[in-house]
Specification:
The complex is a heterodimer of chains A (304) and B (403). By secondary structure, chain A is an alpha/beta fold. Chain A has twelve helices and twelve strands. Classes of the chains: A alpha/beta (304), B alpha/beta (403).
Chain lengths: 304, 403
């Protein structure tokens, strides 16, 4: 409750993303809405092909209260670079350049442009809303689809058991560039997410936020369960809330004890086919990721 | 203020086609340049980079990670009403193919130089026109340049055409790879102040701004999409008149103009006319003179614009010809040269029905000699009395055949 009050005080009542056609319970639209409440009207938003551009730009029903443009699918970070460069050349003052791209738009087709932009320390905020598959086109596997998840291109059958690749670690990929600021976040931890958007807003150079944004359609959950399932991912240790800044990693939230992974997976139909062996693989991967991040963050003991 | 900032260069500078484009871009003062290197375009972006480093060019230069990113960044800049420039070639042009349609559909008045180069496979870095003609329908104004002076002047004119309120369409300036990009010629460099007066800063109400936030690059369903596309089509058609006006104004101010979308050379009363485009026009012009001296009624029609396509001017210029050849450095596999298709289509509606021959030559940088061109005219003369078969002929092929 105290957190809710603080949030209410911190956030604008303006609705910068309104009248869009996102599905009920959409995590991605929540990530966009909260970030734009922080960044305000003097913002240039770039969205590639994907859920948020599909639901926010259907002429003549345009949903953004700030400047907003759809980029090519691969071109989020490059179009943002051009906007940032033009804003400098035109000597604009007091503005933000933000991108909202999905997991596929970021970690697959958009990775080249993102890498180049970070390398140039472009002055913008790139927010990847991660719903863990190409949801806009009907749930196809992306590079950020987690191990075991059923999608329409990683189906389940006698010869297949969902995605077999491990989710790319886009947070570490981005951090490895020596980016000015990077963080992971979750729509269920709104206060933490908003703080990170504020941190990104204050950063000179490139910021990258990787925010977990459940998709009821693609994950097989109820539209009322978005936040609960997102919170569950953090509680069982599959989603780590962390930051990277000035060459240093920081873990923001370490559960005293991980809740069972199997229980979290059981909330989502996309994992319904998984057996004990697969769950063990997922747990092992979780543990090695925590160990690596703790090492990077300079934490000595592994608390459970 | 330095001398350089106010005065015209006192005498012509010796420069390549690439450097002429770079000079044109420098004088146009783009807010943003975003580019990725590719042979034979590299010198353009090297010179521009040097001038930024030396403080002679005040621009935001983005050294991006691909051609796709180059054009994407230019679109972002253009969406804020900034002037932007890029340059590419061949594989790079095709790598940005998605962005070509995006830029024209978004009505972003970007100017881009393309160094015409062959396409892989087989790999080949030398000049032909397969690259730009493969993207003829991308919604860009396509201009084909003959020499270095025209390259400089048309880079400046290109912005004036692209940014015109009735046009708002991107411009692609095509220079034959190596033959034009790397050949040095004396070039008159106009005074920056004169260029500023000719080409004032870009102003448009159609942009994202902090004062009046807006959405751009949006989605339009079946109920609206066609209307956007019709507007786009009409705008590029209007570019023909605007380009002509821009060229005349440029001529008044700088003493050089280039004569619109087509340039007929001794076409009046000509029996046989070779239609061509790009730097090969020089050798065709010489050949026409030689043939005329021998009493052959030969002519040349140089196409400067492929889009908008100057159909009316072509029909008019070829009204007396009994046979017409099209010399081009590309082929649409399974059919004929792309330019030949266009010219044939234009002539289908004309009263004169000349015999038509397509000469495909210069692929992958193969030399087009005087002798080659003369033989083309010989074949055109034969065609005035006997229907040509085949109509599509590959020039100077090492096996025995024509296409």
């Amino acid at each position: 409750m105290a957190e809710a009050v603080r949030l209410k005080l911190a956030l604008s009542d303006d609705e910068p993303f309104l009248g869009h056609k996102a599905c009920a319970g959409c995590g991605g639209s929540l990530a966009v809405r909260l970030a734009l409440k922080v960044l305000g009207e003097r913002t240039f938003a770039v969205l590639p092909a994907g859920c948020m551009s599909a639901v926010g730009f259907l002429y003549p029903q345009l949903a953004f209260g700030c400047n907003a443009i759809i980029s090519t699918f691969a071109g989020t970070a490059s179009m943002m670079s051009g906007i940032a460069a033009a804003a400098r050349a035109l000597k604009l003052r007091d503005y933000h350049v933000v991108g909202f791209a999905g997991d596929g738009g970021t970690a697959d087709i958009g990775l080249q442009a993102l890498s180049g932009a970070i390398d140039r320390h472009e002055n913008f905020i790139y927010i990847c809303y991660d719903n863990e598959a190409y949801m806009n086109t009907g749930v196809q596997k992306s590079g950020l689809t987690p191990f075991g998840a059923r999608t329409t291109t990683s189906p389940v059958g006698p010869h297949a058991a969902g995605a077999r690749s491990r989710k790319k670690d886009i947070f570490e990929i981005v951090a490895a560039h020596g980016i000015d600021y990077a963080a992971t976040a979750s729509v269920a931890h709104a206060h933490d997410y908003i703080r990170k958007v504020e941190r990104a807003r204050a950063t000179v150079g490139t910021s990258f936020l990787h925010v977990l944004a459940p998709c009821p359609t693609g994950w097989g959950i109820e539209t009322s369960e978005t936040l609960e399932v997102a919170r569950g991912a953090v509680d069982c240790g599959l989603w780590i809330l962390a930051e990277y800044e000035a060459g240093r990693y920081r873990i923001n939230k370490t559960p005293r004890r991980f809740k069972p992974v199997a229980d979290h997976l059981a909330t989502q139909k996309r994992f319904a086919h998984l057996g004990k062996t697969d769950v063990a693989i997922i747990e092992k991967e979780r543990d090695s990721r925590w160990a690596r991040l703790r090492r990077l963050a300079g934490e000595q003991s592994a608390r459970r | 203020m330095s001398v350089e900032a106010t005065a015209r260069q006192p005498q012509p500078l010796f420069m390549s086609g690439n450097e002429a484009v770079a000079w044109g871009a420098r004088l146009a003062r783009p807010h943003v340049i975003a580019a990725y290197p590719i042979t034979p375009q590299t010198v353009v972006i090297e010179r521009l980079s040097e001038w930024v480093a030396e403080g002679k060019l005040d621009t935001e230069f983005l050294h991006v990670e691909s051609e796709h990113s180059a054009l994407s960044a230019c679109m972002g800049a253009s969406a804020l009403g900034a002037r932007s420039f890029t340059a590419t070639s061949s594989q790079g042009l095709l790598y940005m193919a998605e962005c070509l349609q995006y830029a024209s559909g978004g009505r972003f008045p970007i100017v881009m130089m393309n160094a015409n180069r062959a396409l892989a496979l087989p790999w080949n870095i030398y000049g032909d026109q397969q690259d730009s003609l493969a993207v003829l329908s991308s919604g860009w104004i396509q201009i084909y340049i003959e020499d270095a002076q025209e390259a400089l002047d048309m880079t400046i004119q290109g912005f004036a055409i692209a940014e015109h309120a009735e046009v708002l369409t991107p411009v692609m300036l095509n220079l034959d790879g190596f033959v034009l990009t790397h050949t040095y010629e004396p070039v008159d460099v106009p005074a920056p102040a004169d260029v500023d007066a000719f080409l004032p800063p870009f102003r448009t109400p159609s942009k994202m701004s902090l004062e009046a936030p807006t959405s751009m690059g949006f989605t339009a369903g079946p109920a609206h999409y066609t209307e956007f596309k019709v507007q786009q089509h009409r705008a590029i058609l209007r570019a023909e008149r605007v380009a002509s006006e821009v060229d005349q104004e440029f001529g008044r101010r700088f003493g050089r103009s280039y004569g619109g979308a087509v340039v007929p050379y001794r076409c009046d009363g000509a029996d046989v006319v070779l239609v061509t485009l790009g730097s090969v026009a020089g050798i065709v012009r010489e050949t026409v003179d030689r043939l005329r001296a021998r009493g052959v009624a030969a002519g040349m029609l140089k196409l400067r614009f492929m889009r908008p396509f100057p159909e009316r001017e072509i029909v008019q210029a070829l009204s007396t010809a009994r046979s017409v050849g099209v010399l081009e450095k590309d082929v649409s596999f399974g059919h004929q040269g792309a330019v030949f298709s266009e010219v044939s289509s234009a002539l289908a509606g004309s009263a004169a029905r000349p015999a038509l021959l397509n000469f495909v030559a210069g692929l992958g940088g193969r030399d087009i000699s005087r002798n080659d061109v003369e033989q083309m005219f010989d074949q055109l003369q034969v065609a005035t009395v006997r229907p040509p078969d085949p109509r599509v002929r590959f020039v100077n092929v090492q096996e025995n055949g024509n296409g």
